[in-house]
Amino acid sequence: GIEKAVTADDVLLGKEKAGQNAVIIGAGSVGLDTALYLAKQGKKVTVVEALPKAGTDMQITIWMSFFRKPGGLIEKYDIDVMTKSPVIEVKDNGVEIVDAMGCRKLVEADSVICAVGRNSVLNSALMEDIEEVYVIGDARAPRRITDAIHEGFTIALDI
Can you tell me the distance from the alpha carbon of 50 to that of 110, in angstroms, rounded to the nearest whole number? Predict the structure, then answer.
């Protein structure tokens, strides 16, 4: 049922609208940023994550702004984060998960947003007429902005 979900990118870019009760699959930086974006609009947001911890791809200072007690963004905007809860099916009325106790549970929502996994996309046709190409950042592999900055700096030193 994943075709019923929209991507976090499309929501953040305004290509898709989220309903008043949204569930986001994936509690990495993209999922949590999307949750904050929607919660600031007054929407009820639940984030489900298969891993035991949310925000594992975030730098510690950013992670702390979301999860510190008291007063983190998750608490301030009343975002529900469910870890150890892999999604097994996307339905018309939400997502079905397996909770930490191994029980199937429906997390109800009128919108399902997918924020898991990314693929790098590089149009190889762009490189056909160019003698020397350096691939960095998300074109190399989806990661953090600091990785792209580091790669750009390192390649600039080599040129």
Answer: 21
